[in-house]
Amino acid sequence: MTSMNATSTAVSTLAADALILGYDGEITAHDLLDDSVRASLGEAAASLEASKKLGSTTVLPGTSVEAKRVVIVGIGDGSEGNLREAAGAAARAIGTRPATVVVALPATTDGEYAAIAEGAVLGAYTFNAYKSDDELAGYHGPDWLIAGASDAAIDRARIIAGAVAGARDLVNTPPLDMFPAAVADVAQQYGESHGITVEVWEPQRLAEEGFGGLLAVGMGSSRLPRLVKVEWAPEAAAQHVAIIGKGITFDTGGISLKPSKSMETMKSDMSGSAAVLHTVIAAAQAKLPVKVTGWLCLAENMPSGTAQRPSDVIRIYGGKTVEVLNTDAEGRLVMADGLARAVEDNPDVVLDIATLTGAQGVALGTRTSGVMGDDAIRTEIVDAAGEANELFWPMPLPDHLRESVKSKIADLQNIGDPQGGGMLSAGAFLQEFVGETPWAHLDVARPAFNEGAPWGYTPAGATGAGVRTLFRFLEKRAGV
């Protein structure tokens, strides 16, 4: 990933490809920006009718500073969340493949400085691994200098931005190369380099131990499923949090085939597992005093002569049976295996994150994720999301929806009330596999992959949705 450092040098004297400054009707003050330089740049910004609207950018020539260009960005109310978004928007106006960028947005706390650094790095994120241009393919971003930040703020931003970017990379990688066994290999490589324990269930072991959901979803593909356990377990841990991630590396819908247009973004159906893996890595890097066990439920959902069929009955890990009425409601089947296995270890809380339902986007749109589950844990997630400036909305799990996932011939069926509420009935289905363990379910179906234009620090393509919320949840559980 790109480098990130603090600087205490006057920003007008730093040779750089770009200098980013805030704008709220005038150039915002900064301890490392000389007032005379600020006034000169302010006149130029006013002549170009710069906007103070959050994320609006104006580019000036670097005539009174050592930087080649100056990017002026609207900072809204100057809150931590607005600073993150402003830095991200400005990062897309820094020019082509810059070597060094200085960011001097107004901040007073470590949290605000970390948000600025995160936003800048994540806003400039690009996925170039498959570009044939050697120079572009080898470019990993500029060296970022965050004016006035502390080392602690930079360290935290480096961990969080790295986790989000890492999750984006996994999801953006084409499914030809990122299939269940490949994700397991990536997890093992990260385990070796970050001091986390990694355990992989190969197909034979999945069959021997009864992981019927993973096997059923994955048996239509020649690239068979995996279950991966990744764990950060410090000696001083006072809490144990288990997080289960949906990892459908590509989803055709199976026999219940999706329309071709709906398949175009289905490499993103592994976003939950990508978020879980990198959240565990971030917890290890931050040395959080909390045990975190991540479960990556990995399968490729393909139609073939060996694929599961509508009306099949499968047995989930632990023994519950499920009638499969729609093979495109496959995520809850692999997640059921993961949840049932995770609660066996008696964690203090279990979370799951998944691109689970199209109904999530219908209900909440493309930027707001839904969270369901026990009231207390759901509230914890919403609070953590608020502090991380991610959008999560609390949703109910009405008792009548639990009846809608009961089957006439098995314990459960994998789709609920056809009249609507698909996001909620999917949550009600998952609830059947957590027992008495405190639990919350995060549905990030639409926010996990941005099909539109970039905005703030969110690029087109994979977004890394949920990573910052999960990490903040763990920090709070650890008392940080």
Report what the structure shows.
The structure is a single chain. The protein is an alpha/beta fold. Helices cover 36% and strands 20% of the residues. It contains 16 helices and 19 strands. The strands form four sheets. An eight-stranded mixed β-sheet has the order 7-8-10-9-13-17-14-15, sandwiched between helices. A six-stranded mixed β-sheet has the order 1-6-5-2-4-3, with helices on both faces. A hairpin with a 7-residue loop joins strand 3 (57-61) and strand 4 (69-74). Helix 8 runs antiparallel to helix 11.
Query: What is the tally of beta strands?
Result: 19
- How far the N terminus sits from the C terminus, by CA atoms, comes to 26 Å
**Structural class designation:** alpha/beta
**Poorly predicted spans:** none
- Order of strands, main sheet, comes to 7-8-10-9-13-17-14-15
Subunit arrangement of the protein: single chain
Mean pLDDT: 96
